[in-house]
């Protein structure tokens, strides 16, 4: 019948056990469908298939689910929150080269693999593609728990929806995705979202190697873009690669977020391309920043969170670019024999915004850090010994700060200590006004002018001379700077210098 009547328009009312048997058209449309839960009707005219869903949730099993170039499949659903689960039980992978559209949400499950080609277009209220399995009971209850070890998912075409999720052990995007997006690689994944585009995803440690890569464009404005992969060991680690563009700009009061996440024990994030959002996080046991990486937080914040981190020339260049648009936090999470240290081996210079170095153990600064911003919203924060009792910070190179900017330290859960930044000899002398304060030198100070102070007596030592009630009781740190040409001419007093 299917070979002799290719142009016949067929409409079939479907119940929970009805077979969908539209005419096959050179395998360019889904075939052998059977509804196993819910109600729908299907009609086909030429290379166009229409599925009218009348129940809020519907499950259909298919022998194949592919759409050829120039062909289309349209779901008409009761509303934006309606969901259709399409499960492939045959042996063929799904190839979407034509158009898939829906006013609600469409799930496509095929353990053999799913590929959206360059001519493929998916336009739905929400789209979830997975090569892992999901039980009917979980789906009908709204529990989107995917398990298994199916084939790969690739997108070279265009996908749009309030929520888009691609879930398999290997996920690759070189096309365009628009909407809150999750690219999740694993063998046990829990997905949660609603019709407003709110999205969360949890990937448990996988039993196989997992990979997520984005070489295309992901646009999740006002929402979340999350690329995550997890593995159970170094041999089966999860890797996240980005060389494309991920954008989650703000829409009104809704700020976008970008998360590139691997697990803290074995995961690896390789960040390149462009990341643009108010909030950006790149976290894994190992985080590699490509020299061409551009991070624009639009006045927001970027968190970098590996196990240990050494800021080399490549890292420094990326940090400088990112600090031009927002705050940056570099944090470590110690694991096993990795203590969680931050080491600065290359100079970093920035203007506005705050750089925070947060270490589970030690912070070691071996190259200059320079902040030229002049407000308390600019500067440097050092948070050390966050999970150890012995961690500290070591300054082996100058930390250059402007007067009025922020310098703050914090050991573990102790209260943070905020310092006043001193950059000239007058401000240095004025420490005597508040001898219990906390101070750092933000620059080298030439104190030649003190030779003419106080009738030739010069600089008045901090804390005065001989009066114990006036001794300095605060904190003073030079941050790698010098005070030169300081005159203190007090021949009748013993044991005095910068401090009395």
Automatic annotation (TrEMBL):
Protein name: Filamentous hemagglutinin N-terminal domain-containing protein
Keywords assigned by UniProt, alphabetized: Secreted, Signal
One GO CC term on file: extracellular region
Natural source organism: Bradyrhizobium barranii subsp. barranii
Localization: Secreted
Source organism, top-level taxon: Bacteria
Domain Filamentous haemagglutinin FhaB/tRNA nuclease CdiA-like TPS, first and last residues per copy: 26-138
Keyword Membrane attributed: no
Annotated signal sequence range: 1-26
Classification via NCBIfam families: adhes_NPXG
SMART domains: Haemagg_act
Pfam family, one: TPS
């Amino acid at each position: 019948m299917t070979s002799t009547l290719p142009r016949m328009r067929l409409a079939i009312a479907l119940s929970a056990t009805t077979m969908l048997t539209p005419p096959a058209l050179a395998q360019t449309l889904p075939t052998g469908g059977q509804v196993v839960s819910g109600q729908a009707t299907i009609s086909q005219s030429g290379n166009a298939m229409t599925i009218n869903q009348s129940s809020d949730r519907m499950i259909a099993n298919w022998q194949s689910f592919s759409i050829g170039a120039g062909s289309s499949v349209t779901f008409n659903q009761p509303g934006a929150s309606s969901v259709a689960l399409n499960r492939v039980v045959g042996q063929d992978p799904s190839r979407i080269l034509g158009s898939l559209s829906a006013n609600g949400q469409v799930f496509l499950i095929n353990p053999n693999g799913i590929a959206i080609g360059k001519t493929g277009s998916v336009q739905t209220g929400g789209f979830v593609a997975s090569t892992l399995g999901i039980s009917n009971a979980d789906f009908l209850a709204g529990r989107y728990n995917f398990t298994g070890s199916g084939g790969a998912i690739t997108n070279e075409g265009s996908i749009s929806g309030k929520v888009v999720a691609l879930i398999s052990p290997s996920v690759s995007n070189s096309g365009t995705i628009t909407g809150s997006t999750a690219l999740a690689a694993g063998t046990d994944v829990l997905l949660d979202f609603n019709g407003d585009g709110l999205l969360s995803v949890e990937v448990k440690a996988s039993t196989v190697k997992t990979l997520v890569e984005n070489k295309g464009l992901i646009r999740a404005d006002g929402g979340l873009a999350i690329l995550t992969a997890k593995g159970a060991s170094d041999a089966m680690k999860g890797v996240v690669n980005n060389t494309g563009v991920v954008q989650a700009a703000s829409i009104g009061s809704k700020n976008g977020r970008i998360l590139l996440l691997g697990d803290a024990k074995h995961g690896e994030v390789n960040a390149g391309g462009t990341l643009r959002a108010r909030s950006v996080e790149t976290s894994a046991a190992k985080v590699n920043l490509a020299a061409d990486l551009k991070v624009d937080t639009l006045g927001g914040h970027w968190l970098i969170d590996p196990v240990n981190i050494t800021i080399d020339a490549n890292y420094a260049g990326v940090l400088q670019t990112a600090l031009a648009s927002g705050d940056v936090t570099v944090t470590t999470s110690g694991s096993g024999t990795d203590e969680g240290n931050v080491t600065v081996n290359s100079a970093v210079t920035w203007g506005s915004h705050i750089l925070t170095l947060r270490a589970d153990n030690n912070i070691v600064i071996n190259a200059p850090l320079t902040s030229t911003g002049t407000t308390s919203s600019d500067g440097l924060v050092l948070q050390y010994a966050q999970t150890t009792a012995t961690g500290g910070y070591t300054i082996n190179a100058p930390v250059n700060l402007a007067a009025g900017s922020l310098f703050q330290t914090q050991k573990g859960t102790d209260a943070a200590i905020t310092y006043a930044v001193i950059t000239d000899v007058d401000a240095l002398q004025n420490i005597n006004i508040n001898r219990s304060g906390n101070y750092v030198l933000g620059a080298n100070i030439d104190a030649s002018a003190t030779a003419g102070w106080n009738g030739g007596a010069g600089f008045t030592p901090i804390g005065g001379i001989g009066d114990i009630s006036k001794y300095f009781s605060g904190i003073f740190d030079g941050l790698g700077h010098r005070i030169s040409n300081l005159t203190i001419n007090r021949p009748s007093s013993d044991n005095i210098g910068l401090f009395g």
